[in-house]
Q: What sequence folds into this?
């Protein structure tokens, strides 16, 4: 028999002996299924079981009822009967034979071990340690035996006897015993501490004793010659871990053999080990800190330590202790949840990706726990081999995450796109062209010229015969937009437009846009990836685009060029170089529209980004049918747009709500003309007007620009900071908080700041706080409240103070001159004043009780993607060491893919510059990049500045109510979709 197997069996039996004590000889109850198998495979039961069970003395026995049942089964069981008859009889007390299962179940029950006088047997059932092993090939019986005895069982598999593992209850019992042992040790330490001063050496010795290789390591161990002392030390560690479990070899074996059936049991030991170690540290710490008693139910209650003892511990230590106990509990319950189900069962329904994620997370979790353990020991885990172990796991985790991310980007409807291509109606022209070229070649007429034309169009998707060049593209300006917006009439030929429309319809992929409310956008869309078509359209467009755009970094680029972006990132010359190959084909039916918006932009990096929208109308829609593209004045409040939300009954009888711009806000209109191209800078507020009749199709893309001059040297640091910050955010949003922390840590302080220019050219420094900074800046969180407070006070001053003063004066007058009118006046004013004081009081109380207010540090400083992210703004006056804080904004994780914008506040002196818009837009992008799809917020009618900002940014009011705190003041709930906000930070 293999040594490993023997070792395992020995460990199991030792554990049983430690938990229950084992009788000698060890009774083995054999049932007919086991005996039958033994007979079939010619197994000598006493010999083989003796060897299997580590050479222990065994007493093989059976019961009368088992034999009786065999007799009843007749000649089939004759051989088995013979085998069973050779065994000793365990007294089963059944005067009338019962079924073997019932009899064995009773025999296995510890209470059934009382001997009877009349039944002589060599099996000593009077022994209090009498706890038999069941030998049975019946699974049902074995699981019953596990429950009743807590002992492992024996079975025969392919003629080989096997010992099953320890039942879960026994393992738990064993762990408790060990924990109790540890407590006793800790109590001893307490006694020593009480007798003399704290014996620091105890702690010191413990700390040294635990040092050693990471038992969770999967790396190959370096063979070292151990000194006697080291050997002793490692023995101690192993005896602390578990007499029977060598964790490193366990994990290694798992890696080598894959996940066999026994795998799921192993991490239980790991968990037990870590939990024990943490608790042990905790106990030792408490006993060493003060000579007090440690409550026996330490881990049972919430705090873990009795109230009176808690009082003796200094505040800062107490909080840490309680957190430690709480964390240990959490760890335990998390592991329990995972371990409750066998591995195979738990992962049965998982996709390979989910399975890989589960495995890696588990591995990462175990190593992370060991990291915690080392920290508890006072060691620096970053210098320990657990560090390399964690690093090693992170690589595959990243790859798995990258795969998962891919799955989360179902932007292009691949099937529809394939059908679009397959339908090939718009490619027909290309095939036709090729055919003609071949014919022409064959005819060898005007070979050189024609071949040149043919080559040019070889891969063309656009129709060479319907060349718009011939018809002439006509450039038409829009208002005073200049190069920032114009129309190219006849950009696509009618045939090209029709083929695009037909192919889109044939693909069946035109669907409502996901994540958008119908009130906001009701048209249908097909997203395509067509690099060749994009390339050809760009070649046609290129002559009409400026050769370069120049940003000097001084002027306000947003007003002069109307593109999104920070000036320091835009500074320099840019040239148009391609169209975004991701094309969006939209269809409007009567009643459908697209509310006022700014188009999203595509940023590859700081040298390559989109700046202009490319939009071709594929249909003619006369002005009387609506459906124009309206350019809007964005200097006006968005609230006017919201207020024009209207409800209309469409021709099909459906009732539709729609947000649209009022006439007064429209600067100019472009009516759809088949084949016309509309080019305009992204940062132009516009809308797709409601279509009244007919069908409208458009094809949309983005014009990409790239840098032609080097980025300014001085901005190197900023770019690096931006890259690091994005990387940290990416990691953090994937739950790799530790790594994100490392990256954040490597960012220099100054580099963490970004420059932001607001609408009126005001430059600000914007800062994303780290958890640590957030803790330090905690007080800042109160600012928006104090502003609200001030605003409220202003309101109240106009009524409450004046009314109180009036009421007091009236009362004085009435008292002095005894005028009934004054009495009446005082009586009328006093209750209103009282009511307002009451309101103020209520507001103050509720402010302090707001859940997010109370838990603010927790949100700011908690790990993981649920954190609240804050952006703080300083004025960026040159040379100012400590620039004043001018505003805050933050975001709070709500649930799933929804977050909440909170604490937007801009000092009154800085309002009206577009600061609020800029930071909110930035926050929306940050949140969208983190995977949030929706952002909600709550505000009141009193905060008109904020309301305007939200509405400008596309937030839609979803609810309105009044609360007891501010009676009569409407409270609004707003919501915005973030799906278009995602993208690299610019
Ligand atoms: O349909 C229109 O006229 C406007 C469409 C639009 O703005 C867009 O798709 O982004
Ligand atoms: Fe648009």
A:
């Amino acid at each position: 028999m293999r040594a490993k197997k023997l070792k395992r069996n020995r460990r199991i039996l030792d554990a049983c002996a430690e938990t229950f004590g084992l009788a000698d000889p060890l009774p083995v109850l054999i049932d007919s299924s086991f005996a039958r198998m033994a007979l079939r495979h010619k197994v000598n039961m006493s010999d083989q079981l003796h060897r299997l069970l580590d050479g222990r003395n065994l007493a093989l026995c059976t019961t009368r009822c088992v034999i009786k049942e065999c007799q009843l089964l007749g000649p089939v069981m004759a051989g088995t009967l013979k085998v069973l008859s050779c065994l000793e009889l365990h007294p089963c007390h059944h005067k009338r034979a019962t079924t073997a299962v019932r009899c064995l179940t009773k025999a296995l029950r510890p209470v059934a071990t009382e001997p009877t006088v009349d039944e002589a047997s060599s099996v000593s059932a009077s022994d209090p340690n009498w706890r038999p092993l069941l030998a049975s090939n019946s699974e049902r019986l074995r699981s019953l035996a596990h429950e009743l005895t807590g002992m492992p069982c024996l079975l025969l598999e392919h003629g080989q006897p096997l010992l099953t593992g320890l039942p879960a209850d026994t393992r738990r019992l064993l762990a408790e015993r060990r924990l109790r042992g540890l407590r006793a040790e800790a109590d001893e330490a307490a006694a020593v501490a009480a007798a003399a001063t704290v014996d620091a050496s105890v702690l010191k010795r413990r700390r040294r004793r635990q040092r050693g290789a990471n038992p969770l390591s999967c790396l190959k161990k370096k063979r070292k010659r151990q000194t006697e002392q080291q050997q002793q030390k490692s023995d101690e560690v192993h005896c602390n871990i578990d007499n029977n479990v060598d964790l490193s070899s366990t994990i290694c074996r798992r890696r080598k053999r894959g996940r066999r059936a026994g795998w799921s049991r192993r991490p239980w030991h790991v968990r037990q080990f870590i939990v024990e170690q943490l608790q042990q540290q905790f106990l030792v710490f408490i006993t060493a800190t003060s000579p007090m008693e440690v409550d026996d139910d330490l881990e049972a209650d919430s705090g873990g330590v009795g109230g009176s003892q808690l009082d003796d511990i200094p505040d800062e230590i107490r909080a840490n202790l309680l957190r430690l106990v709480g964390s240990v509990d959490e760890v335990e319950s998390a592991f329990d949840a995972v371990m409750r189900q066998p591995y195979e069962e738990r992962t049965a329904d998982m996709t390979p990706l989910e399975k890989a994620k589960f495995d890696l997370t588990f591995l990462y979790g175990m190593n992370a726990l060991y990291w915690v353990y080392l920290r508890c020991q006072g060691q620096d885990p970053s210098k320990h081999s657990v560090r390399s172990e964690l690093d090693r796991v992170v690589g595959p985790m990243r790859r798995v995450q990258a795969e998962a991310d891919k799955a989360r980007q179902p932007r292009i409807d691949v099937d529809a796109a394939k059908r679009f291509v397959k339908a090939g109606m718009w490619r027909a022209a290309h095939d036709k062209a090729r055919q003609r070229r071949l014919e022409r070649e064959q005819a060898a007429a005007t070979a050189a010229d024609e071949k040149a034309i043919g080559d040019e169009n070889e891969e063309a998707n656009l129709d060479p015969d319907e060349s718009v060049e011939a018809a002439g593209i006509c450039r038409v300006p829009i208002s005073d937009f200049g190069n920032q917006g114009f129309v190219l009439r006849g950009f696509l030929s009618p045939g090209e437009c029709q083929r695009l429309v037909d192919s889109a319809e044939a693909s069946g992929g035109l669907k409502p846009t996901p994540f958008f409310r119908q009130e906001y956008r009701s048209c249908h869309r097909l997203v395509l990836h067509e690099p060749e078509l994009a390339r050809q359209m760009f070649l046609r467009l290129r002559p009409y685009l400026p050769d370069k755009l120049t940003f000097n970094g001084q002027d306000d680029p947003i007003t002069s060029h109307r593109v999104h972006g920070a000036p320091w990132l835009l500074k320099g010359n840019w040239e148009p170089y391609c169209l975004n190959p991701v094309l969006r084909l939209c269809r409007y039916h009567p009643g459908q529209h697209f509310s006022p918006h700014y188009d999203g932009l595509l940023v590859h990096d700081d040298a390559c980004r989109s700046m202009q929208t490319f939009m071709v109308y594929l249909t003619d829609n006369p002005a009387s049918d609506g459906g124009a593209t309206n350019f809007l004045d964005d200097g006006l409040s968005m609230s006017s747009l919201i207020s024009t939300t209207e409800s209309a009954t469409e021709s099909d009888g459906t009732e539709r709500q729609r947000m649209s711009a009022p006439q007064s806000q429209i600067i100019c209109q472009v009516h759809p003309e088949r084949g016309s191209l509309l080019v305009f800078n992204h940062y132009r507020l516009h809308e797709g007007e409601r279509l009244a009749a007919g069908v409208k199709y458009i094809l949309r893309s983005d014009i990409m620009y790239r840098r032609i001059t080097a980025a300014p040297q001085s901005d190197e640091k900023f770019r690096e900071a931006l890259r690091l910050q994005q990387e940290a955010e990416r990691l953090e949003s994937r739950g790799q908080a530790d790594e994100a922390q490392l990256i954040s840590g490597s960012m220099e302080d100054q580099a963490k700041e970004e420059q932001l220019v607001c609408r009126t050219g005001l430059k600000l420094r914007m800062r994303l706080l780290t958890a640590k900074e957030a803790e330090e800046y905690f007080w800042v969180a109160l600012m928006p409240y104090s502003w609200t407070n001030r605003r409220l006070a202003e309101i109240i001053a106009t009524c409450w103070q004046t009314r109180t003063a009036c009421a007091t004066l009236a009362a004085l007058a009435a008292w002095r001159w005894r005028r009934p009118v004054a009495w009446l006046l005082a009586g009328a004013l006093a209750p209103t004043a009282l009511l307002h004081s009451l309101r103020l009081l209520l507001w103050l109380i509720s402010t302090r009780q707001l859940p997010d207010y109370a838990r603010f540090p927790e949100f700011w400083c908690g790990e993981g993607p649920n954190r609240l992210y804050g952006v703080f703004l300083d004025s960026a006056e040159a040379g100012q060491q400590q620039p004043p804080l001018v505003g805050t904004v933050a975001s709070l994780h709500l649930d799933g893919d929804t977050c909440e914008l909170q604490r937007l506040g801009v000092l009154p002196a800085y309002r009206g510059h577009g600061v609020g818009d800029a930071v909110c837009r930035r926050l929306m992008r940050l949140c969208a990049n983190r995977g949030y799809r929706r952002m909600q917020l709550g505000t009141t009618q009193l905060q008109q500045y904020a309301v305007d900002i939200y509405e400008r940014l596309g937030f839609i009011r979803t609810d309105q109510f009044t609360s007891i705190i501010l009676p009569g003041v409407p409270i609004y709930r707003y919501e915005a979709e973030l799906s278009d906000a995602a993208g690299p930070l610019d």
